[in-house]
UniProtKB/TrEMBL annotation:
CDD domains: ABC_MJ0796_LolCDE_FtsE. Keywords: ATP-binding, Nucleotide-binding, Transport. This is ABC transport system ATP-binding protein. PROSITE patterns: ABC_TRANSPORTER_2. Residues 7-244 form the ABC transporter domain. GO terms for molecular function: ATP binding. It holds the Pfam family ABC_tran.
Amino acid sequence: MTAPVIASAHDLVKVYGAGATAVRALDGVDVDLVRGELTAIMGPSGSGKSTLMHCLAGLDRPTSGTVVVDGQTVSSMSERKLTALRRTRIGFVFQAYNLVPTLTALENITLPLDIARRHVDRAHLDLVVETLGLTDRLGHKPNELSGGQQQRVACARALVARPAVVFADEPTGNLDSTSAAEVLGFLRSSVDELGQSVVMVTHDPTSAGYAHRVLFLADGRLVGELRDPTAETVLAALTAIRVGTP
Ligand SMILES: Nc1ncnc2c1ncn2[C@@H]1O[C@H](COP(=O)(O)OP(=O)(O)O)[C@@H](O)[C@H]1O
Ligand SMILES: [Mg+2]
């Protein structure tokens, strides 16, 4: 039995610029991301992690190759359809929390649904809020919350619309290790308890240890992967990649 795929890339190439200064950020990436898993993307700085995530999430167009998300071919989609897909089927979490300072946590969480005039499923909202440990923080403004709590609000905002997949680029990059552990633990819970699919870019082996699967990029190519990683096995794999890179 093959695992159900939530997003896939086929022979994905992304070249920035042209001529002598062209940068081949992705150099033929083939990958299937599994539904209901937390996948981490790792690799040295400049290896193409963000580019891969942006192409998968429909934020950037590949130079060639195919991206399919939730059964839809993103790479050849019109800008209009792409915008709709990003709005309804894809959740985003960035390093900066991007919360609205004048709104409460709850108002921030439901803002995208309110803007889209979509119904807020109260039972699902409660479940997300509970899973992210935010139940007693809903009335607080962002400046009354810790960095970890703010990032958990941003995660709840991404999850509440029930996206097919959530993409997170260095979600704990601004957090101390305790808050990072908190956010990552809750992200993993969103996968294990809510069945969410999450793809996370990180350069931190401890963060990658929360994933079901880690993909390793080097020079725009997929050079390895680990299942059920720990910080130790990730670190060993990263060291091997660096040693193997000329
Ligand atoms: N908008 C851009 N214009 C030109 N080069 C870029 C752009 N974005 C990324 N790159 C280059 O592509 C390569 C991969 O970048 P990136 O995907 O950001 O790597 P990572 O996230 O792994 O650090 C790097 O060499 C980077 O300098
Ligand atoms: Mg990056």
